[in-house]
Here is the input.
Amino acid sequence: MQSTGGNPPSYPYSSVPNPPSGFSWFDVTYVQGGYYRKANFLDSSGYVMTGPGKQYNLAGFNFVQYTDTSYPPGLPYDESCARCHATGWKPSTTDHQDGLPGIMGTWFEAGVTCEACHRLADGSGIVLNNSAAKCGTCHARPDGGQIETQGGLIMNYEQYDELMKSPMSTHTCQDCHSPHKNTVYGGGGRVVSHTCIECHPSRIVRPGGHETLVCTDCHKPPVVKSAVQYGSGDYKRGDTSTHIFKIDRTKNPADMFYSSGGKTYAHGFLTVREACLYCHDGIEAVYLTAAQAKASPIVPTHTPY
Ligand code: HEC
Ligand code: HEC
Ligand code: HEC
Ligand code: HEC
Ligand code: HEC
Ligand code: HEC
Ligand code: HEC
Here is the structure.
């Protein structure tokens, strides 16, 4: 998250070239995101801009609708965003960051900075916390550890919920990530010495059309949606990859989901819909139905070599 001061925000790898149509950078106090999938904007009073054309998507370089709330007034910038996108957030109805009435509290620093991970809860000192649960304070939704879905795709920022439902729940995020380096742009945030093969040495993909595939193609498919989705039905995919890893080919696509309290959640496994059909849609690779993918003899031969 960064303030604009009348200028476009700056990023190490991406750009958000324009504010929403009809506004100048002087009308935007802060930009949230914009690093890899999408950006949201806070107006000159600190309210989150909502409605048609208020979210910028990096995939299409275009502006799309952001939530159903009309603008103005938009949404107050409060706990529901700030607890994960700002460091040292203190909610308040009377203290407003920068004196902006739309911001319902104050922060120590905008964005996720050192102290988001290294500050003791009471602010009295610094700490090294290597647990996945610490990362999960921001990489999870408040649904008692369940994996929330919408329209057949997993919702974003649920990496901790997904990992805890997967067979690799005993692992920390740092088994695969370096928290001081970026993952998305290949900056070394995925620790090279801890690749899949280091812990699963016998799982090697055999010939049969899959010679060029890597483990994550099937075990970490893009079935999470942050900003955009592609395809439809069994061939629908999102723009972000899941952390569930386990594939159960005996299950049908619908078995992945269950309903509870009016919401739809995912179990801790992927079916052939997630693991295979996003490629086997007749465009990326030969067309397969879910039944054909379930019956395919190709896959089990990847273990052991
Ligand atoms: C996303 C969470 C996160 C952020 C942000 C973060 N760190 Fe860390 N840091 C960690 C974790 C987790 C470890 C332990 C890593 C390990 O043991 O592999 C760590 C380790 C360290 C260490 C111990 C030595 C080392 O490198 O292992 C230092 C010093 C440190 N961090 C400083 C910083 C500073 C300074 C910043 C801001 C510029 C920062 N960290 C930002 C999570 C974070
Ligand atoms: C204070 C909340 C917070 C904590 C704690 C936190 N994250 Fe994040 N993390 C975020 C937010 C917000 C983003 C998205 C930032 C953006 O793109 O604007 C993010 C992005 C990421 C990304 C993708 C960006 C990249 O290129 O690497 C990874 C990977 C990640 N976090 C891993 C971790 C790990 C591992 C930990 C624990 C050591 C952790 N995070 C702790 C809030 C947090
Ligand atoms: C529970 C923590 C949490 C809350 C609450 C939260 N976010 Fe995020 N948000 C994240 C994390 C973590 C990411 C990056 C990982 C991901 O998308 O899976 C992210 C990603 C984003 C991105 C895309 C970042 C980029 O650079 O592409 C935007 C924009 C965003 N959030 C806006 C919001 C807004 C607006 C709110 C409030 C309505 C909000 N978020 C609430 C944790 C949170
Ligand atoms: C078994 C290894 C592994 C573990 C454990 C793991 N990750 Fe990842 N993660 C990956 C890989 C591999 C990618 C890159 C996927 C890709 O390139 O599409 C990734 C990507 C990400 C991203 C970027 C997603 C995106 O939008 O593309 C975030 C955020 C993230 N991980 C957060 C976490 C958090 C938080 C944890 C702990 C709760 C965690 N990861 C645990 C392997 C792992
Ligand atoms: C730090 C070691 C480690 C790393 C790195 C690692 N794994 Fe695992 N993985 C494990 C352990 C331990 C288990 C749980 C024990 C088991 O079920 O065999 C597991 C379980 C799994 C399972 C479930 C097996 C089942 O029972 O169905 C899959 C699939 C899997 N891992 C894939 C991956 C992929 C893909 C990667 C790379 C992105 C990866 N793993 C990286 C250690 C690791
Ligand atoms: C073409 C898709 C595909 C690729 C690529 C792939 N896997 Fe798998 N993997 C599967 C499926 C499907 C299963 C579930 C077992 C089955 O249906 O045969 C599985 C099962 C597993 C299991 C649990 C195995 C068991 O049956 O005990 C592990 C661990 C695993 N894979 C690791 C890996 C690793 C590591 C790589 C990369 C070297 C990899 N996989 C590449 C599709 C794939
Ligand atoms: C990353 C994309 C990708 C994923 C994921 C993937 N495949 Fe494939 N698959 C291919 C490609 C590419 C070929 C070879 C060229 C072609 O058939 O279009 C192939 C070939 C095949 C073939 C042989 C088709 C034929 O008649 O020649 C079968 C069967 C198959 N895959 C089954 C699966 C199953 C089952 C899964 C999930 C467990 C899976 N694939 C996941 C890309 C993928």
User: Anything to note?
Assistant: The CA atoms of residues 9 and 133 lie 31 Å apart. The longest helix spans residues 79-85. The chain has two domains: 2-115, 147-302.
